[in-house]
Amino acid sequence: MEKRKFGNTGMELSVLGFGGAEIGFEGVEGPEVERLLHAALDAGLNIIDTAECYVNSEELIGNAVGKRRSDFYLFTKCGHKDQTFADAWSASDIEHSIDRSLKRLKTDYLDLVQLHSCDKATLEKGEVIEALQKAKKAGKTKFIGYSGDSHDARFAIETGAFDTLQTSVSIADQECIELTLPLAQKKNMGVIAKRPIANAAWRYKSTPEQDYHRPYWERLQELHYSFINGDAKRSAETALRFTLSVPGVHTMIVGTTKTGRWQENAELVRKGALPAEEYEQIRKSWKKVAKENWVGQV
Question: Looking at the domain assignment, is residue 259 inside a domain?
């Protein structure tokens, strides 16, 4: 598995990481999570990313691989109430969230704590940034980052306070390629691509009911990519390799609930970045049809 230097952090990350949302939201049982993660770690995974609001994802990860802490980098997010999406941006909220994550994940430190979709107005007040910096100084986390999209992410980068950026990058979500990633590169930030497979929205034959999947499905109907043609493996490979090709991206986070699926996805990206012509064709299609409201999906 290819590894890339993660900005100024000194970490070298596998280009494919594991995202912990699905195991929490889809109610995966502990033994299955243990099998899933141990198999992925044995196959070359070295980054696990989760969040305080992904139901019991942190506990599942801590219980499953807490004893293998030295085998991977551990990232989480803060800024919401316990297992909800209600905002919690006070300094005490941030401190409580980080301490809770440490306990759940069965670790004395985190490699990265990220503000979770914090808006510009909140960032401007400075309290959340100061709270993260305090946690870093106390050794609770080695680095601090921002997870979010569009102009909120742009402002976060401009503050110069964050070591890393996690943002949506995919065949169906390309606003960041011009709006935020060039600046993040200039500042040598580590960049994590979320939703790199565009939620595999091509799986749906009709409009998905879930709000989480619908925007990408609707965009794909207009983009008419030639590789979205019923061949699920080719679609997934092209999508992942496109995101891998985007300048500035260091690692991609993909979640799964099935043992062996991470390895299957890892096999798809072994060919590396797309050929330049194929990458540019996807970019050309996006620029031709993308609408003003096709912004990064939080």
Answer: yes
